Amino acid sequence: MLGLTMIALLVTAAPAGASTRDFPEYTPVDREITDRALLDALDSTGQALGAVVEARERNDHESARALLAGHFRQRRTPVLPKTTFPGGHAGNSMVVVQGSKAHQKEADEKWLRHIYTSRNNDEGTTETYQLGTPVDWYANPSTCFTWMIYLNQLNVVSKLAGVWRDTGDDRYALEAGHLVESWVKQCWRGYCYVRDGKMTNSGMEVRNRLCNCIAAYDVLRTCPALTPEMHMAFWKLFVSHARDLVEWAPGGSHKNALVAYPGLIAVAVMFPEFAESADWMEAGLRSLRDSIVDRVTPEGAWHTHSTAYQSVPYAWSLRSLELLQANSDEKETSPTADLIRIQITRMMELQFQTALPNGGWPNVGDSYGRHDWGCALSSVLDMYVWLRFNGDQQVLLNRISDPYERMLAALAAAKGAALPLPLEASVGLTGSGYYTMRSGWSGRQQRYLYFDLTPQAYGHVHYDAGHVEAYAYGKPLVTDTGDYFLGWGARTALHNTIEVDGGMQTWGAEMVPCEWLTMPWLDVADGAHCGYSHRGITHRRKVLFVKGDMDGFTDYWLLTDLLTGTGEHTYEQFFHLAGPDPVTSPTVDLDPETLVASTSHANTANVTVIPACLDGLQGSFFEPIESDMDPKAKTERAAMLGWMVSTGTFQRIPSPALVYQRTGVPPQSYHTMLLPTPTGAHATATLDLLPVTRAGVAMPTHEAAGLRCSVALTRRVHASAETDLDFGPNLARGCPAIASINTGSFGTAAGARLTDGARAPNTVGGGASSSPYQPGVPLTAEFVIDLGKKTAVNHLIVHDGIWNGSKTLYPASAMRIRHAVLEGAWTDLVSAQQVRKEPYAVHVRLETAVVARWIAVSVDRPEGGRIAVREIEAYRVADAERTRIKALQAQTVTERWSDVILVSHSTPVMTRYGDFTFDGQFAVLRYDGGGQLTKMSCVRGTTLMQGSKTVISTDTIRDLVTATWSNGLLRLEGPACEGVKIATGSAIEIAVAGHKIPCRPEDVLQIPVSQSPQLTINDANVELHPPQKGLAGGQPWATMTWHTDSPATSQVEFRSTEGPLRRTPFLPHLTRSHSCRVDFLLPDHTYEFTAISCSPSGARTTHPIPSEP
Fold first, then answer.
1. Which of 251, 275, 613, 762 has CB atoms 3.0–4.6 Å from 378's, for a disulfide?
2. What CATH number does the domain located at 1017-1106 have?
3. Other CB atoms closer than 10 Å to residue 58's CB: what's the count?
4. Mean pLDDT across the stretch 494-508?
5. Counting beta carbons within 10 angstroms of the beta carbon of residue 106, is it exposed (0 to 12), middle (13 to 18) or buried (19 or more)?
6. pLDDT digits (tens, 9 = 90+) for 554-610
7. Residues whose CB falls within 8 Å of the CB of residue 477, separated by 6 or more in sequence, listed in order
8. C-beta contacts of 595-600 below 8 A and 24+ residues apart
9. E-strand spans in 691-736?
10. 3-class state of residue 97 by DSSP
């Protein structure tokens, strides 16, 4: 449902709505703090306010007020410094003047007449209303409460202050003063909005309002026209709001503290004249520590667990630091500065560790649209470089133009590393619930999967435990639905995980991470959650990333879902498949026999979803439903299931959701393969179950599963970079251009930006972007390039959308190209093939070149907002070049391989998996097209055989062993390879632990043992810890320490009487002193912790310690 968009329509609001008399229990600020009470709040000990205090003591309040206004008008300190860090722009709770001379026209036409435009977040529109004089701050002319929230933040006061500062016209200062004066006379300090006749308070809005008014007053206090009454209104707002925020800080009267420090530190620094300023500072520093230490995991995750909100404390903290340093002798080495620098960089580095290969973020929690298609890390990176490095280092890093490459260089520089890439490609942040699997760090063609086990216990999280997102070969493939707006994207079914009985996971459910392993060609993430405990079900998901050959064309993921519990249920496994670009719906197929689903996009990478075990399995696509988008039904399936958020909020496209359904009593299982394919490739793949028996008894798949994955992939021989066209010179570079739009305008400099040669993919303001913001208003714009003479053109590139600091917004929904030789004699391009790439660039390819003097690009956005284009390029690509590229693209190669995956979901014992026998936790074997074994990984087993032939065997359990056969060399890797018996295959030499051992082909060779002492564990100890203070969703944790008499590996197994066997991450480095952190324990459970160490010779020892609940 599109709401009423009131841009030109002005509605005089004289509503019979709420007023102060309707809420007698809420005392307005002006009555809460009388003039005398405000004067009494001053610090009387200093000489600066001596005359003010004397006037107060003789009860001459009028003189005291005038003297105090004079003091503030003339004082030189403290100062409100200019922001110097990147991203220090105006925003919620930023003590920054928002307005400037550029707002003068809007101030004259609207604000001085009490005409205000604000957002209706129910419908994704803006609405404009004319309010009365004075403004009735409790009366809402809109049907949406957010309109009043934004108005009562008093952003307009900050904007008016900026206009006065730049123009010197006292009308703007007086209007700001009148607004604040009327606000404190009507409203109580905690006011947020009125809805359904009920008052709602919000410490967050207190903070926003306070920060806006502090910045405004620092400008307006010097205005001679500002009356003493207006000064008094500002002071009362400061004192009342500071007192309110003290109660929201840790130690205050509110049960749940909020982030109060941006307002408290600012008001304490800027108004030392008040006796309570020291208390405000103390509360502000408590809030700062609570916000960026107590609410942050040791790995750097803010407890919101949200893509959008992880970075919220960055600017607040740096602005607070600027305020403190500008008004203190303790500059960069103060404890507060060190705290901010350490904690904020840690939080930023967590985001970098989870970044997609294109520089985007996975869509965790609320994301205000989506962040996975563009280089979202740019703004955070700019701030990180500014905060972490000195000036010379900043210059060197900022010379690296590509943000992703700059991020890698910055991470290396921060660690003092010589290598440009992090050592580990895949990262498991097991104390936070973020898991990222990568084929490598370098290049946008890498394969990547994000697995989510973050707690769901604070605002802005989604009900998405077990969710995955997959990216490969330059684009997202399996992705989050996105964040239409707050709350719309929270439902479990909108993520790539499982819903039970058509219901969502529960709020605050405990997470149960079970294991994280990363190996040269295999990653494993294993975790469960209690989100369906109210239904008697536990969902556990294991993700295997099989990393194939070096070229990456044999990589894939395997998802195993185990559902245990009681009762009969319906289980739905969801996958949301991305389109070829963010604004185009996916083309999807589903084979009714095999239930294999896939995308089929001609010019981008694709993905195939292959389920195993089809018994009782149903597969279908959930098609989008056109609903009225009632906010009260935002979590219902009909709202967003089958849709995909395209770029920003309130923008979506149809995107049928793939769902695999089972019904029955638990235990139940899914085994599903995700196979990515590069541009121009085609794959034929099967995923078959092997028969599994133990002692002759058939095993169900939830106990143990053997799978054979067989793939034939036909792909282009040449990498995508090798088949890029050489376009030749840009014929539009520097040519005159004109931009026009049906409503609104582009500004005078827009035309020059269209042909300046700067594609500006990550530059704020780097293109032609229309104003004002007009959501819901159908927009049509035309961009005309004058080539200066008749010119042959056969390829155009239109770089659309505009970078806002974290994502690209407002790409074209539709585009039409025309050309003309004579001015005004336009002809449509008839043989134009439009292909969106990169993803915010539309390539228009003409089979036959046209001769044109003028090129016109028409862009439509029926959904409104803005129209934005960054650059238009025109080329005459040589016919020979097109022929060359076409020939390269036609060259293909077919690769065939098969993998055998053996997984024990229960306690491992000797098990028969088809032709294989294995007694470990899991093993993966890769065979080439000729059936030769080329790779093998074995985890926690002693024996793996194929038929009667040994693949690998050991006398003791080995945690990790990986073998690779290639070109006559068998490479054996793992922390304990001595004593291992391994099939040599075609190898004539074995490389292990830095040595090479000759061997005979088709033999079984035992690796020599250099030493075989018994390994002993001593001084084992477990220390239990309560949930981290202040961390929403925090669970108990423990540390286990021990010593061994010789160097060995480290790991802890732990288990409660009611849960699965779990493990800490395996630490392969050899040490005598061992320490492991055990995260996400379940409250009120009794655990047994077992220390495990293994020496290089294979000596393995354990030491159990029981714990109390």
1. 762
2. 2.60.40.10
3. 10
4. 97
5. middle
6. 999 999 999 999 999 999 999 999 999 999 999 999 999 999 999 999 989 999 999
7. 470, 471, 577, 578, 599, 605, 606, 607, 674, 676
8. 595/619, 595/660, 596/685, 597/621, 597/658, 599/477
9. 692-694, 697-698, 704-716
10. coil
Amino acid at position 1089, single letter = F
Reported pTM? 0.94
Task: Record the tokens describing residue 142, joined without a space.
Answer: 């809109």
Q: 19-51 pLDDT, tens per residue?
A: 555 788 899 999 999 999 999 999 988 888 999
Closest-CA residue to 1032 (of 384, 291, 235) = 291
pLDDT digits (tens, 9 = 90+) for 863-880: 999 999 999 999 999 999
pLDDT the model gives residue 721: 86
State how far the Cα of 641 lies from the Cα of 651, in Å rounded to an integer.
14
Asked if 478 and 676 count as a contact pair (C-beta separation under 8 A), the reply is: no
Which residue type, as a one-letter code, is found at position 173?
A
Q: Is the dihedral of CA 424, 430, 431, 436 positive or negative?
A: positive
| Domain definitions of the chain by residue range | 6-255, 425-680, 723-879, 892-1006, 1017-1106
pLDDT of 496 over the 90 cut: yes
Dist CA 672 CA 562 (whole Å)? 12
- Whether 483 shows a pLDDT value over 90: the answer reads yes
Among 356, 554, 541, 375, smallest CA distance to 438 is for: 356
Tens-place pLDDT, residues 665-695:
999 999 999 999 999 999 999 999 999 999 9
Q: Does residue 839 have a cis peptide bond before it, meaning omega lies within 30 degrees of 0?
A: yes
Average pLDDT over residues 1095-1107: 91
pLDDT for position 539: 98
3-state SS string for 258-276: CCCHHHHHHHHHHCCCECC
pLDDT value at residue 1: 27
Q: What is the pLDDT of residue 498?
A: 98
**Cis peptide upstream of residue 1096 (ω within 30 degrees of 0):** no
407-430 burial, b if ≥16 CB within 10 A, otherwise e?
A: bbbbbebbeeeeeeebeebbbbbb
Domain 6-255 sits in CATH at: 1.50.10.100
Q: Closest Cα partner for 468 from 490, 452, 448, 446?
A: 452
Count the neighbouring beta carbons within 10 Å of the beta carbon of residue 212.
Answer: 27
Can the peptide bond before residue 1068 be classed as cis, meaning omega within 30 degrees of 0?
A: no
Tokens 């245990």 correspond to: 564
Nearest CA to 220 among 150, 169, 152? 169
CATH of domain 723-879: 2.60.120.260
Beta strands in 862-890 (DSSP E): 864-865, 868-875
Does 3.90.190.20 match the CATH number of domain 425-680?
no
Q: Which residue bears the tokens 């793992």?
A: 974
- In the DSSP assignment, the letter for residue 533 is G
Say whether 157 sits in a helix, a strand or coil: helix
Helix axes 170-186, 203-220, angle to 10 degrees: 150
Confidence at residue 419, expressed as pLDDT on a 0 to 100 scale: 64
pLDDT at 16: 42
Report the relative pairing of strands 995-998 and 682-690 from DSSP bridges: unpaired
Name the token pair of 1085.
């459970």
Please write down the long-range contacts of 275-278, taking CB distance under 8 Å and 24 or more positions apart.
Answer: 275/41, 275/42, 275/43, 275/44, 276/41, 276/239, 276/242, 276/243, 277/43
For the CA atoms of the chain, what is the radius of gyration? Answer: 32
